[in-house]
Input
Amino acid sequence: DTGVSQDPRHKITKRGQNVTFRCDPISEHNRLYWYRQTLGQGPEFLTYFQNEAQLEKSRLLSDRFSAERPKGSFSTLEIQRTEQGDSAMYLCASSLVTGTGSNQPQHFGDGTRLSIL
Amino acid sequence: AQSVTQPDIHITVSEGASLELRCNYSYGATPYLFWYVQSPGQGLQLLLKYFSGDTLVQGIKGFEAEFKRSQSSFNLRKPSVHWSDAAEYFCAVAAMEYGNKLVFGAGTILRVKS
Output
């Protein structure tokens, strides 16, 4: 179990630029979640995948945000035309959901800290 | 919809003292409940979880939590705090009907004084 891996750990960019983050889940996990955490707050749900299918997107996920999980393994989160308000920690988590839909706890990566200048 | 309230933003305890962090949730049925811990600049580590069964659950690092349906609470406890427990603690709720996505409280920052 190598854990959930996120890359990069930190990203500093100018307003208006595009950024892309990557998440590699625990290998046998079929569910992958993205959360955003701003200073002093708990993480907020953005979107999640079951294998390669994106099953839900939060209303927090504006049309500037897109996420993919093309082969049901790693996932990318892209933000286009970044704004100051996008500055946050972006967290990825993965879990295993069985055929009965039973819940297994989500395991988190260390996150990508995005700073918009 | 689900929600979680952690009423204490900061808590300071002396090393060796007992600890209780409060968590109240809102959900119509019995949810899945979790406590996570986060050190500065890091991701979240799972301390313990409640899915069903025994309402007193044991976790890692000597933590335990008790699910009380009548009070809609899931408070985290530790009998003797260590300096290394200083961190931010998050309570979270999930439900299968909502895709098991986690809804977090705002967190409680624990400071440990020697």
